[in-house]
Each structure stands twice: as C-alpha cells, then as structure tokens.
Specification:
Blueprint (H helix, E strand, L loop, with lengths): L1 H8 L5 E5 L7 E5 L5 E7 L2 E6 L4 E4 L6 E4 L8 E6 L5 E5 L3 E5 L7 E4 L5 E8 L2 E6 L3 E5 L5 E2 L5
Antiparallel strand pairs: 1-2, 3-4, 4-5, 5-6, 7-8, 8-9, 9-10, 11-12, 12-13, 13-14
C-alpha cells in the first residue's frame, strides 16, 4: 500500500504503465509522455494525458506517446481530461482553460468559460457541462454563458 501511495504522490513528471507479455506477469514501467502530467484518462484502448503547457498526449501502448495539442506559448496546466464518446472529449485546468475535441482528439479547440482554476469538470458537448472552481459550481446549457448552481444549504 505504501508503494502505491508513493507512486501516486510522485506522479508529476512521469507515468507508470503496466505491460503484459503473453508469457510473463504484468510489469510496471516508468514512461515519459513528453509533458508534465496532471490529468489522465482512457478512451477505447488508448491512454490520454493532459498537463503542463496545455499539453495533451495519447498512446495506444503506454510506451510510445504522440503529442496531440500544445500551446505555442506557455499554456495553462491542464488538471483533467475525459471523453464522453468516441469523438467528443474535453480537458480543463488553470486560468479557466477548457479544451474540447469533436474528432477523437485529433484537434482541440480552446473555450473561454471561466477565469479561475477549474478543479473538476464534466462535459457532454462544447458548452454543455458543469465545472467546479474553488468558490463555485457553474453549468453551461448550450452557450458560453455560465450559470451558477445555487447553494443547497
């Protein structure tokens, strides 16, 4: 258990992936996907990561990574990434960063939805989702205009 916790705590610069050869037991390997990783996801047999510089990368085997998006300048740190279908995915992070893809991750489009750090998010389409910042929960109902979820206290 300590090893797992230590692995999780040291997850900032590299990933550990499990590889399975036909006759050998599973083995963990450290890999470097080309960016400092903060968010991870899987989508139909592929690994996806988001992180420093607004970078997004994918891999089908965990060892060989392809950068799918990177800002020209020092972009925002992407804290999370997810997919809701084969074609639609999203990533989110600091400075209100939200990126979406409609083509399975081949291209990513930036959206202005919030100025603060987005700690958690879930989208089913561009501008249709919910985000959690430090101070509030906002939802988007098909437009770029956010609506605050009222306190339930």
């Amino acid at each position: 258990m300590r090893r797992l916790i230590g692995f999780i705590l040291s997850f900032t610069a590299s990933l550990a992936v499990v590889g399975q050869a036909p006759t050998t037991p599973s083995m963990w390997k450290t890999v470097h996907p080309g960016l400092r990783v903060a968010g991870i996801a899987t989508q139909r047999g592929s690994f996806w990561v988001g992180g420093a510089g607004g970078g997004i990368a994918s891999s089908t085997d965990g060892e060989h990574w392809q950068i799918r998006h990177q800002h020209e300048d020092a972009g925002p740190l992407l804290l999370g990434i997810g997919f809701t279908s084969v074609s639609f995915g999203y990533a989110y992070g600091v400075a209100g960063a939200v990126l979406t893809t409609m083509d399975g991750g081949e291209t990513w489009v930036a959206h202005d939805v919030e100025t603060g750090t987005i700690l958690a998010a879930s989208f089913s389409a561009p501008y249709f989702g919910i985000v959690r910042t430090r101070d509030q929960v906002l939802y988007f109902n098909g437009t770029s205009i956010s609506n605050e979820v009222p306190d339930q206290d």
